Amino acid sequence: MSADQNLDADQNLDRVDCPWPGPVPYGEEHAEQFLGRGADVRKLLGLMERQQLNILIALSGVGKSSLLQAGLVPALRYAREETEGFGPVLMAREWSGLRGSSPAALLIQAIRKAIVDFSANSRTGTLGEQAQLDAERMLAVPVPDDQGQSALRRLLEYTRRLCNEMGEVVLILDQAEELLGSGLSGPAQDVEHEVLRVISTLFEQERRLKILLSMREEYLGRIGPLSGTIEGFDGRIFRLDPMPRGTIKDVLLQVSELTNERVVFEDEQIVETLLKWLGGGANSAADNDSKSPVDLLRLQALLIGVFNYVQEKESVKKLLIDKRVLQDYKEALEQRLGKEIPQEQLARQALENHIERLIQEAAVIEPPAGPAPRPRPRVLVLMTAWLSSAGGSKRHVASLDVIFNSIRNDLVVVGVSHNPEAVRVA
């Protein structure tokens, strides 16, 4: 194993922190590590400065949530600190309460939760003095009582109170396809129409509220009716393109600077090898095309997989990723699977490993008091946290297939089914 062996005599040295979050969206706490999207953040800021309502779209897995949380939100907060024209920013992205609740009522809850979360984060001192002041003022704004008013009128009153207090508020609605009812079984047209009516009403009646909708590209047509009430609709759409291979390579090579030389790729060839593991085969044209898109989900699974593999073998002050490290990691994956893994399937196997690791970590949590759960509900409970989290339903069939391959043997063992194919169908 290649790693810096010049360790101090002290055996209680700090472990190297992983510079990658894994196959999950970057959060605001990862802003300094979030590279390669500066131009996109600037373009989106320009749109938001000029227009009250904008729409961010991209294919699933391209990185919308990461762009918002680690790129746009920190930039908006910085602009707020520098008094450059933006109000405080609130971000809502959890829409699990949509069933049985009107979209307007859900938005009231989501805005209030965003304020509470913002207040908690501001108290850490990492967001700046202005953020702390903003959080205190917004937290003091009461939610209108339900006195026979419709949920929409209460929502309008609440946003009006917030804007009266702050002058302007920026509201980001991430995973907006879920707000439109994508997670509901059966027809969701009534929900969809009501959501569009709420957004249109907010746009028309509270001009001090800046709104950014973020959704998967295939749902853009579902909000098309807004073009009838919102002028210049097409000019409000920002499409986030997949990050090209060349940019990803440059970003990865900056890891040594980000970590003060504690995590280092030996050379560019090591990065190229990792990128080839993402698929396409040994002779794929994409391997030599700096503009070809990269599967960020699998890349992050690879990066954190390699990092964790080295850290579990030995605690080091400096992690050097070289040919030997990659070869050892590949052999460890193959040993776990029990067969040789083609190069183009290594990243997929790394993602399966990551999911399995999460499930195993959850399994050691002390179960609640009461009767032991039956096998099927227990397995579903373990999976729920990741399937229902933001981004957890990405890639739909592909992701479910990865999850299935990771846990199908466990499903059979605990008695869910004696036939793995029956599990897949179920």
Describe this structure in words.
This protein has 16 helices and 7 strands. By secondary structure, it is an alpha/beta fold. The chain has a 5-stranded parallel β-sheet, with helices on both faces. A two-stranded parallel ribbon has the order 6-7. The longest helix is centred in the first third of the chain and has 20 residues, at 103-122. It is elongated.
What letter string, H or E per element, gives the SSE order?
HEHEHHHEHHEEHHEHHEHHHHH
What is the gyration radius calculated from CA atoms? Answer: 24 Å
Unreliable stretches (pLDDT < 50, length at least 5) are: 1-13, 370-382, 384-399, 414-418
Strand order of the main beta sheet, please? 2-3-4-1-5
The N- and C-terminal alpha carbons lie at a distance of 43 Å
Q: Main β-sheet, in a few words?
A: 5 strands, parallel
Count of beta strands: 7
The helix/strand class is: alpha/beta
